[in-house]
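Predict both folds.
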Amino acid sequence: MSHSFFQSVYAVVSLIPFGRVTSYGAIAEYLGTRGSARMVGWAMNASHTEVINLPAHRVVNRNGLLTGKRHFGAPGIMEQLLKSEGIDVKEDQIVDFDKHFWNPLIELRS
């Protein structure tokens, strides 16, 4: 995928509201690249090299698992960031995932 795909991912991630989360697949589907959730994950992994401040902790897998937690520097950082936004996490999974889920296809509809 190109650099512009990564930038498109970052643009969507920057819009995820405080206290909400989305999935790699939901971002891919919003960008018209359904089935490229893994590419969104690669973009998120590369986001630490970007100057922009992304709320990357708000992107989880389709089941609400904190699969990207190892990219936050220290164990527990991703969970701490989510908890600071009122999102409960148990055993690396978001509690009441559906309640916190933000779907860009619905939320960013013009």
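Second protein follows, with its predicted structure tokens after the sequence.
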Amino acid sequence: MTSLFPMFVKLAGRQVLVVGAGKIGETKIEGLLDTGARIRVVSLTATQAVREWARAGSIELELRAFANDDLEGAFLAVVATASRTLNERVYYEAQRRGVLCNVVDVPDLCDFFYPSVVRRGDLQIAVSTAGQSPSLAQKIRQQLEKQFGPGYAAWVAELGATRRLILASDLEKERKLELLHSLASRDALEAALAEESALVAKGEGV
């Protein structure tokens, strides 16, 4: 078996087709909302949440049967229907057109997989079992959520701002690298999180 290539993809401005808007389709659509993608949903029915996203202009929703031309211009396709026949049809049509496709819960009909993700601001930690055991991926995610608490969001944002200042400085390259590595050290993290905790505690006491 060949190995998967892990990467984070920029979807802003790209068209993503979602076929199926039931409860499972809803979760897949929700995961795409903040990416800036142009989300087009085709389904015979849709949950209330999906309809509300359409009314708000967050997605384009067409309540009808899938047509092969729906894949025209799509960068990714996500299929979440209960019909094996339809799932296979969308997948093989996507293959023919060179569109990456994910048929939910059918690993053999997937070009990519949804990982289980821990999000702390700009910090994202993704876990995947290549569709073999989503339950295991979820358990590992839960463990990571405890290890990487909410305080990481502010710390990563601060690291980004400091990194830009260091890179724009006149320091020698070796010194810049030394500073960047020291800022990302365990000691620096613990100090930052301790400072944040102190500020929160102080605020609660006011």
